[in-house]
Amino acid sequence: MQKVRMHLGNSHGKSKDEVQGAKRAVTGAMQSLEEMEETFKRDIKRRKLELEQSIIAKSEDQAPRAIRPLQVSNGDSDVLRDGGLLTPERPTLETGPEAEEGVWEPAPGDDAEVPPEDEVPEVAERGAKRTPPVNSDYLPLPWKGRLGYACLNTYLRAAKPTIFSSRTCRIASIIEHRHPLADPSQAEHPTKNRPDRTKEADIALGQKYVEELGLANARDIVKMLQWNDKYGIKFMRLSSEMFPFAGHEEYGYKLAPFASEVLAEVGKVAAELGHRLTTHPGQYTQLGSPRKEVVSNAIRDLEYHDEMLSLLKLPPQQDRDAIMILHMGGTFNEAGGKPATLDRFRKNYALLSDSIKRRLVLENDDVAWSVHDLLPICEELNIPLVLDYHHHNIVFDPEQCREGTYDISQPEISVRITATWTRKNIKQKMHYSEPCAGAVTPRDRRKHSPRVATLPPCPPDMDLMIEAKDKEQAVFELMRRFKLPGHEKIADVIAFEREDQDRAAPPVKKAKKTPKKKKAKDDTEIENDAPEKVEEAEVPVGGLTVTPEELGMGGPQNRVYWPPGHEEWLSPKKREKKEKVEKVKAEPE
């Protein structure tokens, strides 16, 4: 704008017509820019609303209706569409009956009319002004169930050598490793001995590379199970990335026979320790998608997870409890919305093998599908339902219940959920997590907090998966807070020190000698200007060598708990490099 005014101010010396024409042109340009800016602002607000759309209570003084069963849709299923790009489905954010009356809702499509700026509610207000949750005061104590965590152990991940089960790669790495190493007689090195692209490619070499990653992941599960058992944890989710790209259309592969022995060893240890293992295929594994290729990908992914669990060779009850948790996925409003999505799910569920059907369970999510959306189809198709308390607090049906743990734990609904498990003789499990402190909008509330503060009002013998960023430490936090069985075994770590892995002895520093006295030409000793340095005997600190069985197990004092926000304590402190400051000599004048 300032440049425009300067341009007008410097118009002296020009003819009157030229000046007027320039003014009109500038005025028109300014109006166009203002209109573009206003359109842009409205578009941004509309998109924010689309992203942040969630549950808003109608009013605080309006009592919730009684919990009632939902009617199952009997609509005709849509025909799956062929073709299209092979891209993952994204859940559709839907504006449902839970939307607040009087709040503007964006129409489908990008050409939706945007209301005036003063009519668009602020996103933060829409989250902050929701009706407060109603939580239960019940605590499931004394605790008799199993607490678990998902996929990764932070303490073992920081060990040297590291112990974890999610090593993965890119497809480009598989293709690259089809070429032999520059020196096949030596081990691969990230810089000195890489695959040589000038040599002929062999698909078997690339396959061997990705299989070795999977075997390394599976072997580390044994150590993780032993570690869990030592500290009273009997429940863990296996990583879906254990065998990279096993369910891929082009680069996929079967786990038998190359992984049969390793997985059988994992199952043997889990059986001996009474450890429950489950899986959770990713968010893009959607059986209700209207796209044929997405459904095909989902079925392959489920077949991979089923094979992995079957090869564990667990005892009958533990094998039944080894489930695969799935989300319904998107609502696909452009393809009929929720009723049509449920119809497609029914049709595609019928295509699954009996082994997959025995393991498959559904979970309510934090985007579109509430407990009341999923419970009817779970009862219809004999599929267990996992109740996720955190997801329920974000997506729920206000016609059926309120936000919080109280209503969803009432017998009218909890008995029905439990029945979906007992009729298949599978041990029920639930999920619990909490939002990060200060989260207001639905989008922010979806993010899991590092640890949780309490236990949900579940039965005291429940298998409860704690979904938190700090993994096993979140379980430890609950064990310590409520004095659960095993809490007395857990001790605090020493910052930047570990007594459960090899440590080399530091090199012994040589003692500095006292400077010799100078002599004059007549052999008389003169005093040295330098101060005398006393020789000190260096006391070498011994190294540490641990056995493979002791590696990563917490040492003799079980130091495995790190305080919130101090994960860096698990690794040796990095040396701070002091930058040398070069002294600049003053030049003589």
Automatic annotation (TrEMBL):
| PANTHER family with a match to the protein in the record | UV-DAMAGE ENDONUCLEASE (PTHR31290)
Print the keywords alphabetically: DNA damage, DNA excision, DNA repair, Endonuclease, Hydrolase, Nuclease
Q: Locate the region Disordered.
A: 1-22, 57-135, 438-458, 501-589
Tagged with keyword Metal-binding: no
Q: Key word DNA damage present in the record? A: yes
Gene Ontology biological-process entries:
mitochondrial DNA repair; nucleotide-excision repair; response to UV
Q: Where is the composition biased (Basic residues)?
A: 509-519
Top-rank taxon, per record: Eukaryota
Give Gene Ontology CC terms.
Answer: mitochondrion; nucleus
Q: Write the protein's name.
A: UV-damage endonuclease
Residue ranges with Acidic residues bias: 97-122
Say which species the protein is native to.
Cytospora paraplurivora
Q: What InterPro entries does the record point to?
A: UvdE (IPR004601), Xyl_isomerase-like_sf (IPR036237)
What are the GO MF terms of this UniProt record?
endonuclease activity; hydrolase activity
In which residue ranges is the amino acid composition biased (Basic and acidic residues)? 565-589
Give the matching Pfam families.
UvdE
